[in-house]
Write a structure and sequence with these properties.
Elements lengths: L22 H10 L3 H11 L2 H4 L25 H4 L14 H4 L10 E6 L5 E4 H5 L5 E8 L4 E11 H7 L8 E6 L20 E5 H4 L5 E6 L2 E2 L9 E3 L12 E7 L6 H5 L23 E4 L5 E3 L7 H4 L13
Parallel strand pairs: 1-10, 4-11
Antiparallel strand pairs: 1-2, 3-4, 4-7, 5-6, 5-10, 7-8, 7-9, 11-12
């Protein structure tokens, strides 16, 4: 069983200590003060909720070690994070995912592992989670639409998951797919907004980078359906559409996988899609962004502020082609 105590992780200057309206988050921290043993027992009682939770309801809480952060920005409010979403499987308007969250059934949940690895197969969500120690990481999420959020994710490194399946030397890329049931499509999948299922991918060295993260919760709770329950990818130096939600398939590939938005509009959405303020979207500037919940725009940072950690991955490549 994973430990409920979250190891220290460099949160890249982002903080949560000036958020005052999240009683859930604060009460969770008070709970931790009762001791590690009590936290372990509590986590054990929450774990079965993954298998039995009802869609759109809070599915339990994760105990997290208390830490402090040093940054000028506060977290985006939970209310905003969970009500302003791009999740086209549940609808194209920003409010649709929350409205239609009940349609996403997250139990039981299985993930298919395929391709260039020694241990392919079907794995339950419990199989996927069991060996991993959960961490809390505060990342910036930057949408290609020029808005952003500061989100406290709960999860574990993508690299730790991928290593378990023993990818071989031919595994140059990792591809992901979102849930799609042709016989019982989700509300947004009844329209051909994108070719279903939604697909995304990373180069193997990107996937193995320490920043790449598999999220199963946010703000101390398990993921709300509208945010990609029960498990999603978070790649903080890339535009948000790369962070695929509600994952049901992971495939190790020799060649660059097809990805949904790159297939639909390659001139507007590249395979890499790293956050880059010097390269505009064909229809709007990427130089500035609006934090959801705030009035004024702020400058966009190269690689979304994670340049030190990821720039080496793209040495010798033309930055203007990253889009």
């Amino acid at each position: 069983m994973p430990s409920p105590l979250i190891p220290k992780f460099d949160n890249f200057g982002l903080k949560e200590n000036d958020v005052t309206d999240e009683q859930l988050y604060l009460s969770r921290r008070k709970f931790i003060g009762q001791g590690a043993l009590a936290g372990s027992l509590a986590f054990a009682s929450y774990l079965p909720l993954w298998a039995h939770a009802k869609a759109s309801q809070k599915q339990g809480k994760f105990a997290a070690a208390q830490r402090s952060y040093d940054h000028k920005e506060a977290l985006t409010r939970l209310e905003d994070i969970t009500s302003y979403n791009n999740f086209y499987e549940l609808g194209t308007d920003k409010s649709d995912p929350k409205t239609n969250a009940d349609a996403l059934q997250t139990s039981p949940w299985n993930i298919r592992i395929e391709g260039e690895c020694a241990k392919p197969g079907n794995y339950t969500l419990e199989d996927i989670l069991a060996p991993h120690t959960l961490e809390e990481r505060i990342y910036k999420l930057r949408c290609v639409e020029a808005w952003s959020m500061i989100i406290p994710w709960i999860g574990f490194p993508l690299a730790d998951l991928l290593k378990r399946f023993e990818p071989n030397s031919d595994a140059k890329y990792v591809a992901f797919e979102t849930l799609y049931d042709k016989k019982n499509p989700l509300p947004g999948q009844k329209r051909k907004v994108v070719p279903w299922p939604y697909r995304e991918g990373l180069r193997m060295d990107e996937a193995m980078n320490p920043l790449s993260f598999m999220a199963v919760g946010l703000y101390g709770d398990t993921l709300p359906n509208q945010n990609g329950a029960p498990i999603r990818l978070v790649v903080p130096w890339k535009y948000g559409f790369k962070s695929i939600k509600s994952i049901v398939k992971i495939r190790f590939s020799k060649t660059e996988p097809q990805t949904s938005w790159n297939d639909i509009a390659p001139r507007e959405y590249g395979f890499y899609s790293n956050v880059n303020p010097t390269v505009n979207h064909p229809r709007w500037s990427q130089k500035r962004e609006r934090r959801i919940g705030e009035l004024f725009k702020v400058p966009t940072e190269m690689f979304n502020g994670y340049e030190k950690e990821v720039a080496h991955l793209y040495k010798g490549m033309d930055l203007k082609k990253f889009y």
